[in-house]
Amino acid sequence: MPQVSRRNFLAGASVAAAAVALVPGRTASAAPSAQAADGVDLHWLDGKPTATTGATWGVPWPKGQLPKDSTFALQTDDGSAVAVQSWPLASWPDGTLKWTGHAIGSSALAAGFRLAPGTPAAPPTPVTATRSGSEVRLANGVVDVRIATSGYIVIRSISRGARTTAQNGRLVLLLQNRPDDDSTATQTSWAGVIDGVDIEQSGPVRAVVKVTGRYRVNGGSSGRAILPWTLRVYLGAGDESIRLAHSFIWDADAEHDFVRGLGLELAVPMTDEAHNRHVRFGTASGGIWGEPVRVLTGLRRDPGAAVRAAQVAISRCGTTSRSSRSPRTTSRCGSARRPRAAGSSTPVTAVAPPASATSVA
């Protein structure tokens, strides 16, 4: 069998190589094409997904066929245009494209696609990433995310329309000086302090902001700094959720530093009555466990079938009328103690590396 060099192999196999779309739990591949101008066919390796948070993938191209400034268009199997964002990943020695990266939004759920050189379709509501003063803003007409460029508050706010759904987001670290089984262990609280912020992609289909920093005691500006971290914030055109990917490098003292907790803490403004505030947890199987903060069922006075059904369904069960002279609140949902004052905030901490989609509802 004749010897084949690595360069010749890559040159001959580029057209036939598979392109992979990297999304949570889903992959896609590209069918081979004889010429770059013909494009490549794309399909989901595991079948058409029911939902995604968007998709990204890479495509190899043969040498000498696509100029470095080429643009790409994406269509579904039936010829419908799909908004796609593209960028170069590698070039051949002659300057032509060797690999390109591509991204689509969460609404693109066709069984198959075809990618070819051309003018890309624009999304109905493009996403943007802009820097202004001391913050970077991600916005897509539905969700608005404001990211700080310094300090220990990483995510200043997340809004949906005129309503702020979360604010004062910070990376938190709980460290102790001895193992868990040592009763003399003491714990200290740390917070991630920002070193730098970069806009990696600014739309129109996907925007990505990269935030880097280190953890310091109580988020201070001096003293020991450990565990250099990277947080990427993703937002797609028209999406109703954001995606966070967090990573860090261990550079602490393995003999004296023991991680007890690591996560993202957000303050959630509360405006509704306690019985109309709900805690929800999504599951890997697609189900949702939920419960109101204040349960009105099982009280001495039955609130009625409509209220019981609303609380089981995790939905709003009515409005309240307050009396400034009475410590109690009368509601169509029944009687209960006075709720927390409107406009208050409750911190919510996810004690785990934040690498999942976050709903903004």
Overview of this protein structure:
By secondary structure, the chain is mainly beta. The protein is built from 2 helices and 25 strands. It has helices at residues 6-13, 305-312, and strands at 28-31, 40-44, 55-60, 72-76, 81-82, 85-91, 97-104, 112-117, 128-132, 135-139, 143-148, 155-160, 163-176, 187-202, 206-217, 225-236, 241-248, 258-270, 278-282, 288-292, 320-321, 328-331, 334-337, 344-350, 357-359. The strands form 5 sheets. Strands 9, 10, 11, 12, 13, 14, 15, 16, 17, 18, 24 and 25 form a 12-stranded antiparallel sheet that branches. The protein has a 5-stranded antiparallel sheet with strand order 1-2-8-4-5, with no helix packed on it. Strand 10 (135-139) and strand 11 (143-148) form a beta hairpin. The termini are far apart.
